[in-house]
Each structure stands twice: as C-alpha cells, then as structure tokens.
Amino acid sequence: MSQTIEKSRQALQAVAPNFPRSTWYANAGGLGAGLVTLLVFFIVQRIFQDLPARQMIEAMHGSSNTLCFAGISASSTILPLMLTIFSFARNASVEFNPWFYKRIKSISFLCCAAFTAGLLTLMLLSAPITDLESVTHTWYQVLYLLIVGGLATMVGLLISILVLLYYAILHIITLLDPHNEAEKDR
Q1: What is the pLDDT of residues 96-121, one digit of tens each?
Q2: How far is 68 from 74, CA to CA, in rounded Å?
Q3: Model's pTM, two decimal places?
C-alpha cells in the first residue's frame, strides 16, 4: 500500500502543472478578455459618438441581456460541477496536491463573482430608465459605463474560470489516465 502511495506521489510531481504559472495565465487571460471587451465597447461608442447614451443603451439592451443570462447560467452551472470534481478527487486512488483544492476554491469564488456581476448588470438593464424623459444625459452616460463595466467584468471572470478549469481538468486527466505513462516521463 505504501508503494502505491509513493508511486502516486511521484506521478503527481511529474505531471503537476506549475500552480503560480497557470494561475497567472488565468489572471492574464481574464484581465485581457475584460480589457478587450472594454476596448470593443469604447470603439463602438466612438464610431457612434453622435448618438446619445440613451440610444446606445437601447441598442445594446437585447444582446447585453443575453450575455448576462449566459454568464449567470455558466457560473451557476460550474459551481455544482466543482462539487463533482471535488468528490471525484476525494474518491480517487491517488492523492492530489493542496494546490488542486485551492484551485477548486478559486474557481468557486470566481463563479460567485461572475454570477454577481452578471446579476447586477442585468438589474441595471432591467430598470425602465430609457422610458423616463426626466433623466439627464449625464445619468445615461453613467448608466452606459456601469453596464459596460459589468459586462467586461463578467467576461473577464468567465475567461479566468475557463483557464483555471482547463488546468484542473488537464491535471486530473494526466494523473489518472492509465495509458499516459509515456507522457508522464517527458
């Protein structure tokens, strides 16, 4: 039994991705995706700079709603999957590094943050602000910036989650694949 555990530990060390590097990739990917989203929205705003912010909000209302619903659905679906991965890891015949469990916690936290960003942005989009005539142009600009910021935050968080999930699943597959002995030696 102790030989099996020792072999598992050696195999784990051979295939364990570098935790800080892969986490850095996730952070960089999320930040990059958020910045690209902001850039796209501001380029569109520059192209249509003659339109008032109210019309910009009305024009992006439908697609922003869809994006918020997709982000909320994705983040709320990933949370139960994290419990499944955790259960799978606990019942596996090999031991996982502590970083693996930290990664599951990080993914869960980011899912909650993405859910919250999507929900708050959806709340802003659901307010009947565009129907009010007494709201000034400045408030529409603030509302536009809040919506764009919420969408960019949600997109960035979802990309970070995706990269973290990729490395967690890659680690599980590499560690538990019985046909992967040749790759473990590389």
Answers
A1: 777 778 888 889 999 999 999 999 99
A2: 10
A3: 0.77
